[in-house]
Hints:
Blueprint: H1 6-9, H2 13-25, E1 27-35, E2 41-52, E3 58-67, H3 69-87, E4 91-96, E5 101-104, H4 106-111, H5 117-121, H6 133-144, E6 149-156, E7 162-173, E8 179-188, H7 190-236, H8 243-267, E9 275-279, H9 280-286, H10 288-293, E10 299-303, E11 311-315, H11 316-334, E12 339-343
Parallel strand pairs: 10-12
Antiparallel strand pairs: 1-2, 2-3, 4-5, 4-8, 6-7, 7-8, 9-11
Helix pairs in contact: 7-8, 8-11
Amino acid sequence: LGKPAVGFWQMGEKAAEVVEAVRTKGGWSGELVAQRKNGAFFEVHVTSSMVVDDAGRPVCMQASFADITERKQAEKALLFIGKAVESTSDAIGISDAQGHHFYQNKASSEMFEDATAEEMEAAGGGAAVVKDPKVAKEMFDAIMSGKSWSGELEMVTKSGYVFPAFERADAIKDSDGNLVGLIGIVTDITERKRAEEALRHAQKTQSLGTLAGGIAHDFNNLLNAVIGQSALALGKLPKESLAGSNVTKAMKAAERAADLTRQLLAYSGKGKFHIEEIDLNLLVNENIEMLEVSIPKTSQLRLELGSPSPHIRGDVGQIQQVIMNLIINAGEAMGADPGYIYVR
Length: 344
């Protein structure tokens, strides 16, 4: 009951509290930080009590010390691991060796719409959230045979929503190598799949643009030949020839086709837009026959053009295509019902 041993005394003020508790209450048990002779600190679990003689008089105080440094380090590591598991965006689920689901982290709960263990097992074991039962069985069998499993698959939530995912599943074994459970880590790859699809679409569009540019370039050369030959033929026809009107219409159609071809070349990067002043009324009147052909037979095209005629700057082929698309859309909106389409 005198001065405590050096190792105990160096626990600081807490040691005095322990001694007082033993003196007044007969014993004390708890965790402390002690210091070794070399100055190193370590964690201990202390159980102390008062030793009394036959008459019940206190003789001395005894204490047992258990070094719990490794246990405390393990607890701290588990705490950090737990924090990491709960903060990750991947869904993590753990099942026992029979496939009964007993743990899921926050991300898993959110990903599968707060499905309970019973709901996740309803379709048969810890892999119940896998849409395809064959894939689920393949995964389960692989783990039960001591192998890990990974791959892309489709997962399904409690409400039936299906999404693409990548799962890594593995066995949990004890120190003797016996299977005691299985763990699955699921990553939602919906955004990655969308990005991949967008990339494929962009590459496809680029390829189509390159193809269209090549075709448009060759087609433009053919149209130039058609327009040139038509002009020569028109020059050789007598003024009174009835064929002159037909050749003129053919030339105008070829010129409109050439405008569209130039747009394709511009969009594919093999040409450029030709910006010039455009008389909108004149543009509509010159294309009236082509515009009338593009509407349903039950509809009639009516022009209500302003005066004076509006003038703009732009590419003739593009503006012509805008007018054509507007009229085609109007015709499709009317369907088979008779009526009028106005260009104002």
